[in-house]
Amino acid sequence: MAEQQSPFLILSRPEWSALRASTPLTLTEADVVELRGINTALSLTEVEEVYLPLSRLLNLTSAPASTSSASPTLFSAIPPPPFPMSSA
C-alpha cells in the first residue's frame, strides 16, 4: 500500500520554536501570570517556544497580498510535501 500523503507539516517542538526567528519577546513573567486562565499552566518558556512562532506565522499570512505569497517559504524554510493530483 502506498504511503498516504498529508497536506500538513509535522514539526518537533524545537523545529517549531526555531521558526520564531528574531521575533522579540515583549512579555514579562508578570504579563504571563495575568494572561493565564483558570487551571491553565502557561510559562514564559511556552510563550517563547509555541506562541511567538504562531504569532509570526499569523503576521506573515495576514500581510498584504503583495508579500503574502512568499510568507510560507519565509516562515517555514521547509518545502511543502508534494500533493497527489487528481482529476475530476
Structure description:
- The protein is mostly helical and 88 residues long.
- It has helices at residues 13-18, 29-35, 44-61, 65-68, 71-76.
- The longest helix is centred in the middle third of the chain and has 18 residues, at 44-61.
* Strand and helix order: HHHHH
User: Runs with pLDDT <50, length 5+?
Assistant: none
Largest sheet properties? none
What structural class results from the helix and strand content?
Answer: mainly alpha
Q: What's the Cα radius of gyration?
A: 17 Å
Strand content: under 5%
End-to-end separation in angstroms reads 23 Å
Give the rounded overall mean pLDDT: 76
Instruction: Specify the number of helices.
Output: 5
**Number of separate strands:** 0
Global geometry: extended
Task: Summarize the amount of helix as a percent range.
Answer: 40-55%
Features:
single chain; mainly alpha; 88 residues
Summary?
About 45% of the residues lie in helices and about 0% in strands. With about 90 residues, the protein is mainly α.
Please describe the topology of this protein.
Layout: H1 13-18, H2 29-35, H3 44-61, H4 65-68, H5 71-76
